[in-house]
Design a protein that fits this description.
heterodimer; A: mainly alpha; B: mainly alpha
Chain lengths: 88, 290
């Protein structure tokens, strides 16, 4: 969202402003999905550790792996958006 | 002692904002964070092997990684372990237990542990160097009549070519090791899951595409994480110059918050993920059934 603000500030004509809004919408929707996913991962982790605290060490690695895999989805959106912003 | 350390840390954390501020003040043209990713050639070499900013960062990162390995691991083993030894052993244990043993089968750890461990340490070092303000920048500032490069933050891993080269290495090793362990026929057969025959024409292209997607996801994950981190910090600081000077408390606080988030969490997680996924890919090529 912030990047859209930034690009809006730099935009000179209407087309650029529209592209900035599209970029922000794309990233924002991507972040929405990843937010849900991250909430699921950490929520499940808390539950798992609450039920079986002795598994914490093993689960932490899996948790961070999942965290990075889910988080990366936002950045694919960001890269796609930036590419579209620059190229089109 | 600890108070001194806190003060030093606070000063160090305040540095990048100062550096960014001075960078942008010196630049007369319109502020645009994307300028950080336009590289001038510093030393012209044939075959496109020019030394630019990311190359300089990579060389520096290689030296620091080697030094880290030598300083932390080559310690005299005595009666009571020193702090240096403890740090070295902690890094070793993370690489052994969290990365290698999670992905690689037991018989392959001996051969591939050095690769994944050095990958982790190397990426961590480069990412970390990316958040330390260093006088490696295309822009110069006048200090007492001498042109010096401005302090700037830039990570070599926020360029796609660097991460793609790293991912390509893992990708090639995966297939070479898979073919060596299972034979050509056995390895390519292991790509295809057990499905009804009618589905095969659909599954096979998808599986082949999936192998290439690994390459893209592995490289773009690291690249986009570091790029987005730097862009966010630069954008927050840049708001001062784009809008009004009065936004500076907000932008400095937000920029510092993102800086801390990147340094504390993202840098280590990305190094760990890259190494762990490399280990998992190589491990699953050696023993496809897992």
């Amino acid at each position: 969202m912030l990047s859209s603000f930034f690009f809006l500030a730099a935009a000179e004509d209407g087309a650029d402003a529209g592209k900035a809004i599209a970029l922000a919408l794309g990233i924002g929707l991507g972040a929405l999905g990843a937010g849900v996913g991250l909430g699921n991962i950490f929520g499940s982790m808390i539950q798992a550790v609450a039920r079986q605290p002795e598994l914490r060490g093993e689960l932490t690695g899996i948790q961070w792996l999942g965290f990075a895999l889910v988080e990366a989805v936002v950045f694919y959106g960001l890269i796609g958006g930036l590419l579209a912003f620059v190229l089109i | 002692m600890s108070r001194l350390l806190t003060l030093a840390t606070a000063l160090l954390l305040a540095l990048p904002s100062l550096a960014l501020a001075s960078t942008t003040e010196v630049a007369e043209e319109e502020f645009d964070p994307a300028h950080e990713w336009e590289f001038k050639t510093w030393i012209d070499l044939p075959f496109g092997l020019d030394i630019t900013k990311p190359v300089a960062y990579l060389i520096l990162g290689t030296i620091v990684t080697c030094l880290l390995g030598i300083v932390l691991m080559r310690v005299k083993v005595g009666r009571d372990p020193t702090k240096r030894q403890a740090v070295g052993e902690m890094i070793y244990e993370i690489a052994q237990v969290q990365v290698a043993e999670q992905g690689l089968p037991t018989k392959a750890i001996g051969r591939w542990f050095p690769y994944v461990a050095s990958l982790m340490l190397f990426i961590w070092t480069i990412n970390m160097l990316g958040f330390i303000p260093l006088p490696l920048s295309d822009e110069t500032v006048d200090v007492g009549g001498i042109e010096l490069p401005t302090l700037a933050i830039f990570a070599a891993t926020s360029t796609l070519s660097v991460t793609l080269a790293l991912a390509l290495m893992t990708w090639v090793f995966t297939h070479v090791e898979g073919i060596r362990a299972n034979g050509v026929r056995g390895y390519f057969k292991s790509w295809i899951p057990e499905v009804p025959k009618a589905l095969l024409p659909m599954i096979i292209p998808l599986e082949i595409l999936g192998q290439f997607m690994r390459l893209i996801s592995l490289s773009v994950r690291l690249y986009a994480n570091m790029l987005a981190g730097h862009l966010l910090i630069l954008t927050f600081i840049g708001l001062i110059f784009l809008t009004h000077w009065a936004v500076f408390p907000l932008s400095v606080v937000a920029g510092t918050a993102f800086y801390l988030f990147e340094v504390v969490i993202v840098v280590s997680i990305q190094a760990y993920i890259f190494a762990a996924l490399s280990a998992i890919y190589i491990g699953s090529a050696i023993e496809p059934d897992h």
